[in-house]
Amino acid sequence: MKTPEEFRAEAHKMADRIADYFQQIEQYPVKSLVKPGEIASRLPDFPPDHPEQMDDIMEDFEEIIMPGITHWQHPGFFAFFPANSSYPSVLAEMLTAALGQQGMIWETSPAAAELEQRVMEWLKTMCGLPADWTGVIQDTASASTLTALLTAREKATGFSVNHDGFDKEKKLRIYCSTETHSSIEKAARIAGFGRKNLVKIAVDDNFAMNPSALRDAITKDLNDGCRPCCVVATIGTTSSTAVDPIAEIGKICREHDIWLHVDAAFAGTALVLNEMRHFADGLELADSYVFNPHKWMFTNFDCSAYFVKDPDLLIRTFEILPEYLKTRTRGQVNDYRDWGVALGRRFRALKLWFVIRNFGVEGIRDKVRKHLDLAQWLAGEINQSPEFELLAPVPFSLVCFRFRPLQISDESAIDNLNEKLLQLLNASGRLYITHTRLHGKYTLRMVTAQTNVERIHVEKAWTLIRATAGELIKSGNTGE
Fold first, then answer.
1. 3-state secondary structure the chain
2. Which of 299, 315, 346 is a domain's end point?
3. Range of the domain at 386
4. pTM of the model as a whole
5. For 387-402, how does the pLDDT look when each residue is reduced to its tens digit (9 = 90+)?
């Protein structure tokens, strides 16, 4: 394509394809059923020397690429946590691609910088977050956590690590629960703390961090000459959406001047509902906080909302000012290149702005409340079934459960049976769920938070789960 006219024609066709995809998405298997290497084997070893027509490219897209797509926007997608899309978000992404903004500093895109500032203020109000926090959009919660740990590191060392590097004598310690997301360990490694300085704190029966165990670990480290640097607490852990007691943890951090970072990557969207804000009791004690609109707020990946109590500490940690980035507006505006790891920045605020305006805050609340209700309905069905059991509380829209036939008592056999059940369900193409382990038990995870999921989709999934489990028993393929 070389002319606006050619682009216009192809863009109209693409819009129709996208609309057809959303309309027909339930005809696809939720989880791709291809085998490893199958897609690559159909792609040429070398790129084309000459231009190819868009019709030919799109034909290959349908025949080669689409079979290898797992459909995250399918209402039968109950796996992991969602990476939700929506109509207004997709439209904004089209504009973002067309504008091609590089929002590293205010001068490279004043609208990108100032819209980001405003929508982060909107999010703060929508979710009832502390008024004195300041927000910035990062790409993912992993990047936000790394940002928090780096800032905590510099605060604890008087910014000496940025200048001198790590002193081997400084044993800075990071604390998180045994249920905390793996990105915490990854960030601890990248930030130079080292895996051995990440202290995993025991959890209670509901998989939330035990504050007494945290206090004991901090006391021991102080006695051993280590320096507690940061605690990472979670609102909605990945395996079970457990909620750490933020208020108690925050008080401990205040006593010892320890940075408190709160990870609410998935569950943070629930705070748009007043009735869910008790899960964030004590959040005002946190130094930094993250949640992902790209998970449960219907905004295309990637869009991670990171808030910090003291933005000056954040900026001082990351700012570097070469001559070619000096501007006359510095100090009057937010140059977001200084607010995280990356210099280059996408115009992520645009899609969030579109979503909030097109849904409206009440529209977002209605969707989230529906997803919570669906999870409670499913949990109720599981509780009423003699051969299924819940394995964790259901505070949000994740339901953790397993199949446990009355005639089977061996835990290893029950684990094997549930693993086979998971494989059969996902191979059906009708739904996609994932698993974890809770108290050592193989656990099925089902998240009712996809943008377009309705009661009928959850009912169909539950019917399929029970039917497939029954067939496993009838076949004698129980894993014993």
1. CCCHHHHHHHHHHHHHHHHHHHHHHHHCCCCCCCCCCHHHHCCCCCCCCCCCCHHHHHHHHHHHHHHHCCCCCCCCECCCCCCCCCHHHHHHHHHHHHHCCCCCCHHHCHHHHHHHHHHHHHHHHHCCCCCCCEEEEECCHHHHHHHHHHHHHHHHCCCHHHHHCCCCCCCEEEEEECCCCHHHHHHHHHCCCCHHHEEEECECCCCCECHHHHHHHHHHHHHCCCEEEEEEEEECCCCCCCECCHHHHHHHHHHHCCEEEEECCCHHHHHHCHHHHHHHCCHHHCCEEEECHHHHCCCCCCCEEEEECCHHHHHHHHCCCCHHHCCCCECCECCHHHHCCCCCCCCCHHHHHHHHHHHHHHHHHHHHHHHHHHHHHHHHHHHHCCCEEECCCCCCCEEEEEECCCCCCCHHHHHHHHHHHHHHHHHCCCCECEEEEECCEEEEEEECCCCCCCHHHHHHHHHHHHHHHHHHHHHCCCCC
2. 346
3. 1-31+70-86+362-480
4. 0.93
5. 999 999 999 999 999 9
